[in-house]
Design brief:
8-stranded parallel β-barrel; about 40% helix; binds 3-methyl-2-oxobutanoic acid
Amino acid sequence: MSVQSDVRRLTAPDILARKGGEPIVCLTSYHAHTAAVVDKHCDVILVGDSLGMVMHGLETTVPVTLDMMILQGHAVMRGSQRALVVVDMPFGSYEVSKEQAFMNAARVLKETGCGAIKLEGGTRMAESIAFMVERGVPVMAHVGLTPQSINTIGSFRAQGREESDWARIEADTLAVSEAGAFSVVIEAVAEPLARKLTAQVPIPTIGIGASPACDGQVLVLEDMLGLSPRVPKFVKRYSDLGPGIDKAVASYAAEVRARTFPGPEHTYPMKKK
Ligand code: KIV
């Protein structure tokens, strides 16, 4: 007997087929509960390595490990049914060789059940992307600002704001597309360049701080909910949940101290004889 869900999950080929069509909606999630909410509204759930900063309070994504990504990727798969779940390959898990990239990507696919992986880098990753795609690993690429390179680039600043930078970013985007990536995240890139890249490549571009012309958009869930203390310029806060959570925790603390929580409705009386 096979264990099949009634809901058909979107696949990497489904997302590829959306090039130039209805915008692809993507958000990050790292937990089963938020995944269930995001799944209702989004086509793609990204288990981003931003979890290092958001969940663990790290300064950068560099210390994130493959085990951390697999644990949260598995949780997101359990919480979702329909969206394509894409799990980020963390820094150090794929750059050494195409073989290393394949082995670790295969671990992510096997141990989480997700439908694709994402990795950062353009031209330098093209050979590994082709190697993985030929062997059954769907790859979402990530160009423009690549936060895992923070120690060599020095800051999280927007890319391509000088025309002299465009050729490099265009070459990166074309390289990952030609290598077989099914989509590409374009992060913090000057709007006219992101628009041009979207017109140039035959795969969907997913913008974050890029352009409304991109084939889809992605944001970090906690950033758009107003839970992150500092956010980049490209984040729109769709909610401000921080004060609401603060108020709820303060009420709980006050009621525990006053012994008004738990009330009779929250406790178990003895069974009637
Ligand atoms: O790690 C992440 O959340 C990401 C998105 C910001 C694209 O890579």
